[in-house]
Write a structure and sequence with these properties.
alpha+beta
Length: 450
């Protein structure tokens, strides 16, 4: 019986992709590699965008690629190609082997330990096709933008609406005998509009994203949310400079926890380029903060049974009761630190931060008077020192209620102090990203305005 292609618009099946990986590994061995790992991927997708009621772009992509890493003793070489022919496989492996000959020995290089390979590749329900014609996608995008433009007379321009649908399939194998594969889909609808009043103009956006089309917000709801967020920014002004409590909205707050996880990555640790060197077992956050990874979550945005090295993924606590429990490690960084990989080669998978009991409105009331931040600008985070200084926009809150929009302010502090000064995490969790948390109420942050 013929196999179904793993990705639309591709003729390649899972068996064919797994065979390609086996061919790569076999060729590496025949050319003298003492160990090897290889990966093959196929991706397909479509995207349409409209602006001011007209179609701007209709795009379709079909990409494929394979890569191989060979080890000759402790020397390493890597090469890749988009050509899947036998001759290309031979040439790609030869290129990797040539590179390895000129690479210095590294006692920490090599495959992940064989005993850590995933023994079971679970079905995590990651692939959900969106049977959408270009015409249907255009209609959805037009409805989204129309809802935004018609929501308020102050919406005077548009940056457009976009509907995207993508699917991918990946196979990884190594000379331990491990071969694993998984596929997944990602779909999204987004909209960005501009509002004007007197001489002032403001822009904002909204989007929805999911592996499952049925879990996307309605296109009209996305457009209305984009319009609402844009209009409410009109009349923005600065606030006075001072130390004050701040709420980071849920979609912004996740970035703070991402900075923590970046500081705990093995590469930053062994290079001594982190403000949290040797931080495991140290108290970094208040006791109510728990940060954990759940890589086997059904339909999770980053779920996988194994990491980029074939290592089995597992539930892991990175912070428990405010205390750092683990670094974020692949096998190389783990060896450099004398530890064991945490199965995070290729990144983190579905990170959650526990919420407290307060919803967003209750967080505002709990704060009383201070700044609500809904947008951050710039890259002012020094991961070596922890110093934090970024442009911000949002809203001024008094007596627990939003009073007026705020722009052109800078918030500054040090991440070590900021983490300890978290007062609450709200229940308004943003579910769209890989790091999911609610809004954060933080005390004692410097805000520079007028």
């Amino acid at each position: 019986m013929a196999q179904t292609p793993v990705v639309k618009s591709s003729s390649l099946t899972q068996a064919q992709l797994e065979s390609l990986v086996s061919d790569l590994l076999g060729e590496a061995k025949s050319q003298g590699a003492t160990a090897a790992e290889a990966a093959v991927s196929v991706e397909s997708g479509s995207s349409v965008s409209v602006r001011l009621g007209d179609v701007e772009t209709v795009e379709h992509n079909l990409d494929k690629g394979l890569g191989v890493t060979v080890y000759v003793g402790q020397s390493k070489g890597s090469a890749s190609t988009s050509d899947f022919s036998p001759a290309a496989i031979c040439d790609t492996v030869a290129a990797a082997c040539r590179i390895a000959k000129y690479t210095a020995d590294d006692e920490y290089s090599g495959l992940a330990d064989a005993a850590l390979m995933a023994q079971e590749v679970k079905d995590l329900d990651l692939a959900h096709d969106w049977d959408l014609s270009p015409e249907q996608a255009i209609d959805i995008a037009l409805n989204c933008e129309s809802a935004a433009r018609g929501a308020d007379k102050r919406i005077t321009n548009s940056e457009g609406a976009t509907v995207s649908s993508h699917q991918a399939f990946r196979v990884y194998g190594n000379s331990h005998g491990f071969v694993g594969s998984y596929g997944g889909t990602h779909h999204s609808i987004s909209c960005s509009v501009i509002a004007s009043e007197a001489e002032a103009m403001q822009r904002d956006y909204w989007y929805t994203a999911s592996r499952v089309p049925a879990k996307l917000e309605a296109a009209e709801a996305v457009g209305l949310k984009a319009a609402e967020r844009t209009v409410r920014r009109l009349g923005a002004k600065q606030v006075g400079t001072g130390v004050m409590p701040v709420i980071f909205s849920a979609d912004i707050a996740s970035g703070l926890f991402s900075s923590y996880l970046s500081a705990m990555r093995g590469g930053a640790q062994y290079r001594e380029s982190s403000f949290l060197l040797g931080a495991v077992d140290q108290k970094i956050f208040p006791e109510f903060i728990n940060i954990y990874e759940r890589p086997h979550l059904l339909q999770g945005s980053s779920s996988s049974s194994f990491d980029r090295e074939g290592v089995a993924t597992q539930d892991r606590d990175f912070v428990r009761n405010g205390v750092a429990q683990s670094y974020v490690l692949d096998s190389y960084s783990a060896r450099r630190l004398g530890l064991q990989t945490t199965g995070n080669a290729g990144g983190l998978r579905n990170v959650f931060i526990d919420s407290g009991d307060l919803g967003f409105a209750e967080l505002c009331k709990d704060m009383g008077t201070g700044l609500l931040i809904t947008e951050m600008m710039g890259q002012g985070v020094n991961m070596v020192t922890g110093d934090y200084s970024r442009g911000a926009a949002g809203f001024w809150i008094e007596n627990g209620e939003i009073q007026y929009p705020v722009e052109e302010v800078t918030v500054a502090g040090n991440l070590k102090d900021m983490f300890l000064n978290i007062q609450s995490v709200g229940t308004d969790v943003d579910r769209r990203g890989n790091v999911q948390c609610g809004s954060i109420l933080m005390d004692g942050l410097m805000v520079a305005g007028e």
